[in-house]
Amino acid sequence: MKRLLGSICIVMMLFTLMACNTVPADVNKLAQQQPSGNTGKNQNSGKKVLFVGRDSGGDALVIKRLKEKHGLEVTVVADKELKVENANGHMLIYVSESVNSGKIKDIFVKTPIPVIYAEPQSTSDTGMTDVDSFGSLVGANAAKTIQIKDSKHPLAAGLQGNIDVYKDNGKMGFAIPGKEAIVIATVPNEEQKATIFAYEKGVKNVKGDPVAARELYFYLFNGEEINQTDEGWKLFDAAVKWATGK
User: Fold this and answer.
1) Which of 7, 55, 121, 124 has a beta carbon 3.0–4.6 Å from 101's, enabling a disulfide?
2) Is 29 exposed, middle or buried (0-12, 13-18, 19+ CB in 10 A)?
3) What is the DSSP letter of 167?
4) Taking the model in full, what pTM does it have?
């Protein structure tokens, strides 16, 4: 009898140990699924643009274009809240003309991320032009036409000659770039006043400093987005594609 009871106890102990070492199939399945979700999040981080400006008015039209035409995820940051760290994880930075340039200054000069500036004074602050070598066509000088100077460059979007980028006369920015800049378009018959120009990564700006990443100036004034023609948007799209290396 004692031997029988001893045998029963041994069998029960073996069943208990087997039950403790068995892991439910659902737990194993859940563990295998977790890395998959993290991988997808990392892949999407390369399609982001940091938009420095507002999320309303004319800026909202540019943001919509970046999202719908270029498939970019847009992070909007106001100029007063901007920090250089905001650029981390983004493939492009866009600085709207709506910003206070005094709050932007040269914050992105050493950042290895392409930047498109629509604020003309930023060209002076960043070394894209000499001090005060920028301006705008406003009031009686408002304009709607620019002159393509380098029609073979991708930034020209296949356009050439005089192009109406606005439907009606409107505010338009310009600047006088350095000698190593790529001049795409100017104010008609005023070749020094560039409305679209760019710097390739590694070339020197007017301060003699190498450019950390592609930089581009684009004439578009805040409030004129609704005034843009199809040709104007073609040039904008070309700027985004060139800046991001597409």
Assistant:
1) 121
2) exposed
3) S
4) 0.82
